[in-house]
Write a structure and sequence with these properties.
GO terms for molecular function: ubiquitin-protein transferase activity. Keywords: ANK repeat, Repeat. Pfam families: Ank_2, SPRY. One of its GO terms (biological process) is protein K6-linked ubiquitination. This is B30.2/SPRY domain-containing protein. With 488 residues, this protein is α+β, with helices and mostly antiparallel strands. It folds into three domains: 99 residues, no CATH class; 195 residues, Sandwich (Jelly Rolls), CATH 2.60.120; 142 residues, Ankyrin repeat-containing domain (Serine Threonine Protein Phosphatase 5, Tetratricopeptide repeat, Alpha Horseshoe), CATH 1.25.40. 31% of the residues lie in helices and 17% in strands. It is built from 14 helices and 18 strands. A seven-stranded antiparallel beta sheet has the order 3-6-15-8-9-10-11, with no helix packed on it. A seven-stranded antiparallel beta sheet has the order 4-5-16-7-12-13-14, covered by helices on one side. The longest helix has 22 residues. The protein starts with 13 loop residues before the first helix and ends with a helix.
Length: 488
Amino acid sequence: GGAMTSSSSSSPSSSLSSLLPFVCLGYAVAFAPSLPGVSRMRLPASAPRPSAGLRPRTVSSPCSRLLSLRASLSDGTWARCERVKVDGNVAAYTEELEGAEVGVIQLDKALTPAQPYYEVEIVEPGTQSWIGVGLADSSYSLDKQPGWDVNSVGYHADDGSYYRCPVPDEMSKSGRPSPMPLVGAPFPCSKGDKMGIGLEFDDRGTAPSGFPRRVFFTKNGLYLGSVILEKQFHYSLYPTVGFNSPGAKVSVNLKADYPSVQLMHAAQFFGTNEYAIDITSDAIAKGADVNVKDAAGRTPLHMASAYGATPIASLLLEKGADPDVQDNMGLTALHMSAGYVRPTTTKLLIENGADPELRTQRNERALDLIRNLRNITQATSMGGLVKDKRYPLMTEVMELLLGVTEDPNEWVVPAPPKLSQEQEKAIADATEKAKTIMEEMKKDPEKMKELEKAMELMKDKDFQEKVQKYAKDPEGMKKLIEEFKDKV
């Protein structure tokens, strides 16, 4: 997909048109992960990307709709089923020709807070691995993969991406929405892999709606990420599996163990969910593994440490969380609390035996990480306009680690990653553009007020989610300007 551009057929005010791109740039800098090894840069358009398999999109004939099958299960009934043979929990695509109509099975029981998750194991991928595991409303068409039509979402085995379609105008020219990678990268699946999909429900507080609000995905039990469900989605979403690869066969587990993946999902929002500690306690009570990992190798304690959610970190440690688990980049919970400048959580981890000598793949201890971060951070930034309130907190974290690190005189400063010429030029251009905008704003008090509003907008959760949502949409900037023009 294309990157966001500022082209627009409408005519918003010139100040707004120039300001929102700057806000998006500022958002990318301010909110993107800043720990070692985590890149903030988008690859240039010319960079190679994995190709997604093209799937035929056909329309089911009236005759084929008469071939519906039924199979009873202890968990419910595959009440809607076409071009698929079901034997117990095993479902097989019945078409033998390439390019035949999609086959779909759908359970007659929606996911609920009592069973919010299910898994599908690929027994045979078929010729092209065209298998989609998803959720849809009870009227969903049985000739489309989940995620290809309204009120549906799906995780597809062949390209390892998710598809979601709340409203028709979000569909691409192919007649279905474009694939979106999970956590920044696709996770394709093959024979023996287990694909999982679950829901987060609005079931807490004094007036819960009970409706699903997020859908999350897993591969072989590893949490891959989640997406928010817009209000257009139906309140009841049913397990739905699609096929259009001859020879494809899957085994469906409608009672898959979910507390651990539910805990890992909740961990992604420890800093924003007011019920996070209750959700954590409930998941642990149901048997969740407190050391469960996501696709990045991070545990709930990693996330609690990054967010500075000290009460949750304390609960996890009390229940057996290992503070020395290292993620895919070698980061521990102590690295996370240091890198995200969380002195209270850093102190808690040290008191609970976290090892300050463990090193990342770039050879940094937690002390090195906070020293390097503090060393490149000025007390004020943006030409003295913004005071960095984290600076004294960085000093506090550094002093805590100085007291427990074996050799404080050692200071590891990793070499910066090598960038391509295109990446260097993109960074230089973006930096120069930001400087130009700042200089112009300094000359105009009214624009300075707009900047203050823009800084507040960058903190808006809805704005952050929309930036991510429209990141690959060629009309993304136009949509952002239209949706947020009244807030700036």
